[in-house]
Amino acid sequence: MKVVERFQYQKTIDEICQLEWDSLTAHDMICVAWAYYYFSIQFRENLKIARSIYPNDEKLKDLEREECDTDNLSPWPGVADVGEKMNHDEYMRRVLEMHSIDLSQVRYFKSVGEGYLEEMRGLDDVSRALSIASYEDGGLERIFRAILEFRHWDNALLGAFRHFLSEHIRFDCDPTQGHGALSRHLRPDDRVLPLWSSFKSILITCVPRLSPWSGSGSELPAWEGSIAQQES
Ligand SMILES: [Fe+2]
Ligand SMILES: [Fe+2]
Hints:
Layout: H1 8-17, H2 26-53, H3 58-67, H4 88-96, H5 103-121, H6 125-147, H7 156-173, H8 179-183, H9 193-206, H10 222-231
The chain binds fe (ii) ion (2 copies).
Residues 67, 88, 168 line the site of one fe (ii) ion.
């Protein structure tokens, strides 16, 4: 019998998939997009690190062409013109500009996001490079499918975010040219666990209702709590 090794980070992916995605409001999903924006920055940085560790790896070169300075999400109304090339985190940055939210929330997300990026930048390069395969070879696809269970994509920001998610499922899963096929030879292991744990944390920090322990979701929103703390 073939024994398939299962890593701890795969359990964290399961836990993210099992978060309370179907209990979110449209506003909560905007908060998910904010958290995802910071994730997308570290994704690009990790991919650049993988490219620098393996500069002659043709599959990683292809993957970089699919994620950076690319028009594969274009066009999208209000975000990208026909044929316009950009990094995927730039797409997400523009998505966030489509819908204004309370300034105190923006400040909160920026502070959480910068803290998260600082944490990611403190990790070793090999772990960051390996994370790319764990993201691309099914990890993000599973999470995006869970997020897409949400049913209220009813404003411009959310429509553009849904486009990002559904296109990424398509990009990742092609058996030969998909992003999974272009990266799985990196063979991730539990060195990527801290990256997945921090992804789960930033999601729950930005969107407390995702947590199974959040009860009715009627507790003080995290950004209001942070403002109250700062003022006391
Ligand atoms: Fe991407
Ligand atoms: Fe991808």
